[in-house]
Design a protein that fits this description.
This protein has two domains: 54 residues, Homeodomain-like (Arc Repressor Mutant, subunit A); 136 residues, Orthogonal Bundle (Tetracycline Repressor, domain 2), CATH 1.10.357. Helix content is 66%, strand content 0%. Helix 5 packs antiparallel against helix 6. 29% of the residues are buried. The N terminus is likely disordered.
């Protein structure tokens, strides 16, 4: 799988869209993915990030100005994953009997596809680590890059699951995020089940979320 295309430049404030970044910047961002995925936002230091990229701290500061800016740009560089999710959602015929299953597939499959390539797996873990981090609201990643997509999924859920109490669809979306998050931190399954009994994780995840949404 080739590296995913960049969608933003490192200049400007978090959230501003600009021209695609240079090859050097893309290389720095990909190196930062692994460090942030392993250490988390608060645990990673600029020195660790620079060492992972094989550059000096001064070069990172030249391109990104701060750790927060670098962190944001790691996610902005990979916005095509969310673009895939939105495109698939927009293609769903919400009047079809299987619309809910298609919504769930649009939500989880572009993220699960990241697990298929070692170069993408670290970003998958980083996305889901950020989603599970209580301090994420202090940064702009979720609110700027994920919440607009989330609102589209919530609107679709409201359409295919009418008559639910106030707040149901918003919480249903967040609970679905939780299930998806756990799927990328699945090393514990080895101590709970034998390899032969774990089954198709992706299919089980889709069935689990769909059933929970339908019966909630």
């Amino acid at each position: 799988m080739t590296a995913r295309r960049a969608t933003t430049e490192t200049s400007g404030t978090a959230g501003e869209q600009a021209q695609p970044s240079s090859v050097r910047v893309r290389t720095l961002l990909r190196a930062a993915e692994k460090v942030f995925a392993v250490e988390g936002y608060h645990g990673a230091t600029m020195r660790q990030l620079a060492e992972a990229a094989g550059v000096g701290v001064s070069l990172l500061m030249y391109h990104f100005k701060s750790k927060e800016r670098l962190y944001y740009q790691v996610f902005a560089h990979r916005q095509d994953v969310n673009e895939q999710r939105r495109a698939r959602l927009q293609a769903v015929d919400l009047d079809r009997p299987d619309a809910l299953e298609e919504i769930v597939a649009a939500f989880i499959e572009p993220v699960l596809a990241l697990h298929d390539d070692p170069d993408d797996l670290w970003f998958a873990r980083l996305v889901l680590r950020e989603a599970a981090d209580p301090s994420s609201q202090q940064r702009q990643v979720i609110s700027s890059l994920f919440d607009p997509m989330a609102k589209e999924f919530i609107t679709a859920l409201r359409r295919v699951l009418p008559g639910k109490p106030e707040g149901f669809h918003e919480w249903a979306y967040l609970f679905s995020v939780g299930a998806l998050t756990q799927s990328s931190f699945d090393t514990r399954i080895g101590s709970l089940a034998s390899a032969s009994s774990t089954g198709d994780k992706n299919a089980l995840l889709a069935s689990f979320i769909t059933a929970a949404l339908r019966c909630g």
